[in-house]
Amino acid sequence: MATSPGAAGGMLPPDLSAHWYNADDFAPGESWRAFDPARTALVLVDLINWQVDPAGPSIAAIRAAGHPERADHLLARFADTIGPNLELLLPAARRAGVRVVHARLASRHPDYGDIVPALRPYVQAAGAYDGSLAAMPIAEVGDEPGDLSVVKSGSGAFGGTELDFLLRREGIDTILYAGVVTTACVLLSVAAGFDLGYRQYLVADCTGTLSARDQEDAERLIGNYLAEIVTAADAVAAMEQQTHAL
């Protein structure tokens, strides 16, 4: 089972360890203690057509900027790691009653004026408005009945969206994260979720960025205290254990 650097590195005095990662009874080495799928959401960050399609505008923009190797790394990461692990994680989450959330970078404004300035040209060039094919979830994750969907105007899944309200209304206090890219939109989603008080997990092998070094750095930063670092297999096992206990 994967362990977070913060827990494994002995950062915490013993009297503080019970409050790490916003988990009331956190214990190092027991990542899934008191885990409840019914109070959990799986937030899929930017797993949408314009972001990860090999022929899509985001990959094209990375290549046009002179970084074909970074585009190739992300595509290979998706094909070899993210995609296969999502095939394990998503069905297990839906069976266990985990609420699947699609957090999608797209516009609801005719001139894309709702998008943060730094990202606006990319979203506009992609034609990523809410309802467009570009802004729809990729086929690998689907959009099943019962899934939630939020449209974000910037990097994080919480900023400018109703996500916090929707989760709290359902009594959800725990979040699993998957998506792209780990150093940007995923990282900022996790950071915001931590400050909102959610217990959090980064499903590391369901995330990807533009280089192996970037992925390593993101996992180290996130794992320090924002979220526990786990694998898809870890999460599936925890969900199945809870389902069988019912």
Your description of this structure?
- The chain is α/β, with parallel strands linked by helices and 246 residues long.
- It has one domain (5-13, 22-245): 3-Layer(aba) Sandwich (Rossmann fold).
- It has helices at 5-8, 49-52, 57-64, 68-96, 120-126, 163-169, 182-195, 212-225, 232-245, and strands at 40-45, 99-105, 148-152, 174-180, 199-208, 228-230.
- A six-stranded parallel beta sheet has the order 3-2-1-4-5-6.
- Strand 2 (99-105), helix 5 and strand 3 (148-152) form a beta-alpha-beta unit.
- It starts with a helix and ends with a helix.
- Mean pLDDT is 92; it is low at 5-9.
- Strand residue content: 15-25%
**Poorly predicted ranges:** 5-9
Fraction of residues in helix: 40-55%
The CATH superfamily turns out to be: Isochorismatase-like
**Nearest-integer average pLDDT:** 92
Can you lay out the helices and strands and say which pair or pack?
Elements: H1 5-8, E1 40-45, H2 49-52, H3 57-64, H4 68-96, E2 99-105, H5 120-126, E3 148-152, H6 163-169, E4 174-180, H7 182-195, E5 199-208, H8 212-225, E6 228-230, H9 232-245
Parallel strand pairs: 1-2, 1-4, 2-3, 4-5, 5-6
Helix pairs in contact: 3-4, 4-9, 7-8
Write a concise keyword list for the protein shown above.
246 residues, alpha/beta, Rossmann fold, 6-stranded parallel sheet, 9 helices
